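Margin note from the TA: students keep mixing up input and output lines. Inputs are the sequences; the output is the structure of the whole complex. Example:
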Amino acid sequence: MGTYPPISEQLDDVESARAEGHRKMDWARQHMPIMTTIQEEFVADKPLEGQRIGMAMHVEAKTAVLVETLAEGGAEVAVTGCNPLSTHDDVSAALDEHPNITSYAKRGVDDEGYYEAIESVIDLEPTITVDDGMDMVAAIHEDHPELIETVVGGCEETTTGVHRLRAMDEDGALDYPVFAVNDTPMKRLFDNVHGTGESSLATIAMTTNLSWAGKNVVVGGYGYCGKGVAKKAAGQNANVIVTEVEPRRALEAHMEGYDVMPMAEAAEVGDVFITTTGNRDVITKEHFEVMKDGVLLANAGHFDVEVNLNDLADLAVAERDARDGVHEYEMEDGRRLNVIAEGRLVNLAAPIALGHPVEVMDQSFGVQSVCVREMVENGEKYDAGVHEVPDELDKEIAEIKLDADGVEFDSLSDDQKEYMGSWQHGT
Amino acid sequence: MGTYPPISEQLDDVESARAEGHRKMDWARQHMPIMTTIQEEFVADKPLEGQRIGMAMHVEAKTAVLVETLAEGGAEVAVTGCNPLSTHDDVSAALDEHPNITSYAKRGVDDEGYYEAIESVIDLEPTITVDDGMDMVAAIHEDHPELIETVVGGCEETTTGVHRLRAMDEDGALDYPVFAVNDTPMKRLFDNVHGTGESSLATIAMTTNLSWAGKNVVVGGYGYCGKGVAKKAAGQNANVIVTEVEPRRALEAHMEGYDVMPMAEAAEVGDVFITTTGNRDVITKEHFEVMKDGVLLANAGHFDVEVNLNDLADLAVAERDARDGVHEYEMEDGRRLNVIAEGRLVNLAAPIALGHPVEVMDQSFGVQSVCVREMVENGEKYDAGVHEVPDELDKEIAEIKLDADGVEFDSLSDDQKEYMGSWQHGT
Amino acid sequence: MGTYPPISEQLDDVESARAEGHRKMDWARQHMPIMTTIQEEFVADKPLEGQRIGMAMHVEAKTAVLVETLAEGGAEVAVTGCNPLSTHDDVSAALDEHPNITSYAKRGVDDEGYYEAIESVIDLEPTITVDDGMDMVAAIHEDHPELIETVVGGCEETTTGVHRLRAMDEDGALDYPVFAVNDTPMKRLFDNVHGTGESSLATIAMTTNLSWAGKNVVVGGYGYCGKGVAKKAAGQNANVIVTEVEPRRALEAHMEGYDVMPMAEAAEVGDVFITTTGNRDVITKEHFEVMKDGVLLANAGHFDVEVNLNDLADLAVAERDARDGVHEYEMEDGRRLNVIAEGRLVNLAAPIALGHPVEVMDQSFGVQSVCVREMVENGEKYDAGVHEVPDELDKEIAEIKLDADGVEFDSLSDDQKEYMGSWQHGT
Amino acid sequence: MGTYPPISEQLDDVESARAEGHRKMDWARQHMPIMTTIQEEFVADKPLEGQRIGMAMHVEAKTAVLVETLAEGGAEVAVTGCNPLSTHDDVSAALDEHPNITSYAKRGVDDEGYYEAIESVIDLEPTITVDDGMDMVAAIHEDHPELIETVVGGCEETTTGVHRLRAMDEDGALDYPVFAVNDTPMKRLFDNVHGTGESSLATIAMTTNLSWAGKNVVVGGYGYCGKGVAKKAAGQNANVIVTEVEPRRALEAHMEGYDVMPMAEAAEVGDVFITTTGNRDVITKEHFEVMKDGVLLANAGHFDVEVNLNDLADLAVAERDARDGVHEYEMEDGRRLNVIAEGRLVNLAAPIALGHPVEVMDQSFGVQSVCVREMVENGEKYDAGVHEVPDELDKEIAEIKLDADGVEFDSLSDDQKEYMGSWQHGT
């Protein structure tokens, strides 16, 4: 039994928190035309009636619109945070006000509370799980296998989560179907590339008051997030350096015109380092030892293990907060290395961080919403394991978005369809 | 029986043609470090000994290095062109000089000769086919099914060819295994994006002496080729307009910052139109009727059906060659619409065209070479049908290229490998 | 006589304010290698000994390093804000602690206090004025002409200030020499282009949580600031639209690949509007009437007159703060127009604004510093009127910066110098 | 007395040359809306009646439209080439057919003929000179000072020419007024940046069949031409490296995100080198010695002295034409260095070169045309020496161009004009 209380029982002034939470959600909803369209449909059709949804997400204004939309679709929802620093208490409180929603998300919760809150969500006995880092999936499989029988399916938002779900699936250890929402073109291109790229850079700039022009920006990893960070940094006139472990990605970065080199070499010339690999120990002791004075270190990958802070603390002779959101480690030789947002996901964990841009999450949560609907309506079609999001769902979201932005596009004529389907043509 | 003679029997001055062909091949080989590396390996190991390879390719200097490499690997090779306008006779003659190679490719061959040449190649009774537009596969399946039994497998280079092979495969009509070389990350990103993009624009610029800055460049289709053309045109300060039929691609172009609109609307504002769809009738009568005076029309897709020249000729009151490689159609109201390279693949068919850049083909043909080797060594692993290129082959080429360009990259530590393979982590 | 008190007399807890101010200045100084170099020189040489410097600037951490540097050079300095919303009280208090500095800058000062503070600065009877918007020059010329005799000269930082000083000069109304610091290549390119561009966009993004990708961003004016905003917005994958009144600038934007159109037309399609003209009434009633729901309106020009807020308030049926730093005006038909930072200079006046990036101001203030030194050492060489910054000073700063960034460059050989100076060459 | 005959007396088949020349000029005129507009005005007004114009220009289709326009304005024109390799004989012959024009330009003329042709032009006793490299100005001042009295003035097209004219002016040696057409915003930005950038890269690509993506492209000099080459190369995904001798330009390139380093260092890593300095010996022995095998060397500056070919020939153990337009120098250690177009202006002198894009020259020659008109109408206003082009002429051309491209822009209201002219505003 979860013993962690809902946010409304934890705040001193719940009413004013809720008011501020609603104001934040108003702003988000105003710039989320996809979710607005889907919410209208859900209100009318109640496709999720009778479902119980357990969610572990970054609880802030945009995610709240997803939570609200699922509740408006008829589901009972319990939600908690997926990162102790990313929750907005006011938004959590506003959600908790909804008759169909209980929110346990609380900023700054300690480790014990974090896992208790997950337990509290699980008390709902979810039929659907929605994850941003597979917390719900893991908790159910590891600690509550008895619930698996009644779970219809799940949705996973992150690259890292999907990566691990696939590993679990390969081990034969994943016992219900999960949509790899992260892997859709909609999610990867728009969320990872544009969302992570833009918001990480803006957060770093507004946390440090420093500029990009002429800087050597080292991007650790050239997956979708790394591509986004590199592209947007180059768009601010940084000199981009990429590190990679996969030869084809390294070559892709090289052909894009970026410098590609091992981290050991990049460490000597970089001014700003941004990790996006999803792996641990991307930047370690050997790198800290050769870095220039005043460098910035930030992480745009899921966990705070990419920049090895233990190594850094070991090397440091002094530490201080140089600025809100900037922790300075002073080396024996006087060099100062500045870590942004404790090496956690920078666009979510920095003091001024706002997470991904609203419109980007609109797309991403649009896919989530129709994936939940699909799981409810056609769950029997999906075996236990990781599933790609069906193309038609992804296209449905793209069409809603284009329509909202007033963008028209062509359609194939019958002759063209016939031509594309045929293979009997000459030169 | 093929009655079409080798190129050496068709030229007046074979010797000087061969000399010029070799000079062209020297230049190509000098800038093809991947093929140089593979050729050294093939010379040493003779992995293709005993094979007979039938090829229909654009026969110019770069492809010639592939043909030569396969021959050096021990195979007997017969080759013909895959487009009547893309053959360089001198290169064809230089190839034909090689003891293991017979080349039937001849520039400007008529329709009858084109198909006779294919027949002559088939006389070799190929064990391997290498196609740039599935000519060999089609000829064997349609006209020489008796050969299928001895065919080990094939390789297909183009988007269009792979598309059709898949359609054929779905119809149960593809009777031997074919590698979809086009679909590898190496091929798609580097050949389609960088190769098609750069060479199409440079060819148009040098055919017309016109500039890109400030021009409305309409790109028909936002697949890999379309992305390349759009990216490179924007990089020359054009104002890029994209037309699409797939909503996710349309949205991707929109989020990139390009204008997206239906062709009917783009037709009114475009200065240059470049089609890359692989489909027919992308630009037709209704579009010609509203275009501005002096527009350029070019095609970067495989076949010459994207710009409907029949429609254009019907509308025209006069035609002339405004310039080498530029055919001008004069409309009744005096507007002049200029078609580059007869609407054929512009970077291959324009008078000054040189095809894809050498380095790009080096990568693409590197994949082809190791795919042929794989088919010979492990052909029994592949059933009849279209096959993805195995990742390891693709990575092999990427590593050779990075090494040749002096680019170093990182590798995963054991701890990192373990971390990426595991799914039991907390926050 | 100025009656406005120094900041230290206005704050409740001066000590903690000073501590925070010093922490902010430490961060700035750490990323200002040019100022660090110059400060070392000034401490050693005391080139400003005996001077009295009156300044009206945006008083925050970076400017504080300039103020401090001038004081360290031996001058007595009095400083006040040049914009009621741009002062950081803690930094102001930290400056006021310096024995050679009196700071009157206070955030949120009212109109009366604003001008009284200028009077208090003038009580110092400045020999040098340093302006960011010609407040000091105007006050001395209009209200204290008796001081002109003892003024050695001035420096002006902004485009707008220089523009007006030139108008004043043409009217024969400028009675002492002023360096147009704004007009140097160093200032225009780095401060206006990179500084205004990057910081305006990051401030808007972090104030609204919205993204740039795929947005129609209308940039009012294509001077240096407009070029910067356009370039950086395009670098974030916005679709940039430029409005201009000067045909050559309009053409320059057109040739860059941007859409150029009148504001009346841009108003209908824009998602975000950013004015950079230095003029008034760039966006007015006729434009508000046709804008889309949810647009953002921001100003990156000096004064808050570019977006006509009176017109907007007249049209609005309701107003509210949609978000910190975002004021929403609701139109009769339900459309909501969102004004960022009250239409004031967005990268200075928004709640989270930090002003220009540190490194950019390092360059700009480096030029200011050596210009003040030049005025002291060689003031007699400059007549009353606006003066270009001597090339050698500008180059001095560039060399200090390149050296600090570890960038080496070439120098001309004697033969090359001779060649460039000669005009007697054939083909 | 000039003894060099007009082109029509030098060709075997003048008629067919003229026909081809006219076809080339038709194409150019079709894409030169500015010149078309001005030519209509000149035909109507005959503003140049009675003038004799001596020109030394690159005689190809676009320049021919300028020559023709001046003749249509009523002037008698004599023209010769300004570079032995840039003349198109057919265009020269077509011009020579015009009753008001005599053309002496001949491709491949030897040194003696080159100067004799200039003498033949001078026989016309020009009242106006129009230069692309100050050949006419130099010849008149050095060899025919007696003509100076009757010269009204001149126009100079190139950066290099203007540079030398200024040196001459400073020596008191320039005896009639010359417009520095090169220095106008119209010329510098569009011709130098867009024209040189695009055409140099396209020419190199189509001469070598090589690509830009992932290449280290070293740009010698970061003036307007260098900026253009760097910008367009980066736009093709090259990794741009800039060398400079002026610290502010070096810093500008650094802040743009390019690598900046001395040529001695760049020489070791560059794949392609493009010089744009206007100076000599930018690349010399010490650089050739460390270059990689297979590098390309090209020049986009006026004279062929930037890449020191004497040094290169001294080092070479063998030379050959690797390709049309590519001369290969083999070093003792086997490395091959490839010089494009003999180190001459690559976009004019390569075998396939077409010079600047048509539209760019349209702008540049538009300025030339109205400058010649201004010199005739108001020549007495200009003293001997170098003169900036009056702003109004430059704006006239910009407005014609915007109008032709269908681009509308705003104009200042009276209130706005008043505001910009005033200096008495508060905050």
